[in-house]
Design brief:
Length: about 220
């Protein structure tokens, strides 16, 4: 089972993916997380990706496709994958299809989490996470008990460098220009499922379960 998870930055893909892997026997592969790991480790790829990420632009297709195919091979198949943040361009989607086809596989479903632009900026710029354990917060919607401190008592909260106002605006524009065309791409293939992401986390989760329960066995 191979699921592609589409949606603008701040739609809640990461949050929902964590709940989906708990319910279904699948692995969550986030291209953004992998790139951040490369940057932290100072790899050549991490260094090449840095300026694009900090500006809210897309990292070139050739780098991303090679990275994702390598990652999928490395972690093996298990019950399947949820691809979060990949593909992000038509070129990446074609390359993914070609790589899967070589193994007699294909994308089974493309989920698209739809959220109005007006909500995205507020959702993203308020995001914080613990610098030690990574626990996620939002200064307005999910604040820590003590300002800027993780509830687990481990460390101060930090903001992702690309979650600042200017960069967020560019990330949203980049989504519309380069990633939104994927909605039509998967619709034409007949495997698009759109979900309203403009409601609460629990409601979105229920809608996703409703769609996926029909096609993926729960654990
Ligand atoms: P994300 O965590 O998914 O918001 O990704 C953070 C940043 O990583 C993006 O703004 C891009 O610069 C880069 N990135 C992540 N996934 C991709 C992708 N599939 N193609 C190109 N760039 C990507």
């Amino acid at each position: 089972m191979i699921i592609v998870f589409l949606g603008p930055p701040g739609a809640g893909k990461g949050t929902q993916c964590k709940m989906l892997v708990d319910r279904y026997n699948m692995l969550h592969i986030s291209s953004g997380d992998i790139l951040r790991r490369h940057r932290k480790e100072g790899t050549e790829l991490g260094q090449k990706a840095q300026s694009y990420m900090d500006a809210g632009d897309l990292v070139p297709d050739d780098l991303i496709v090679a990275m994702m195919i390598e990652e999928m091979k490395k972690i093996g198949q298990g019950g399947g994958f949820i691809l979060d943040g990949f593909p992000r361009t038509i070129g990446q989607a074609r390359e993914l299809d070609a790589a899967l086809e070589k193994e007699g596989k294909s994308v089974d479903v493309a989920l698209c989490l739809e959220v109005d632009d007006s909500k995205l900026e507020e959702r993203i710029t308020g995001r914080r996470s613990c610098s030690v354990c990574g626990k996620a917060y939002h200064i307005q919607f999910n604040p820590p008990r003590q300002k800027n401190q993780c509830d687990n008592g481990c460390g101060p909260l930090v903001q992702r460098p690309d979650d600042t106002e200017d960069v967020v605006r560019n990330r949203i524009k980049t989504y519309h220009d380069q990633t939104a065309p994927l909605v039509a791409y998967y619709q034409n293939k007949g495997n698009l499922q759109s979900i309203n992401g403009d409601v609460g986390i629990e409601q979105v989760r229920e809608s996703l379960f409703e769609v996926l329960d029909k096609i993926v066995p729960a654990r």
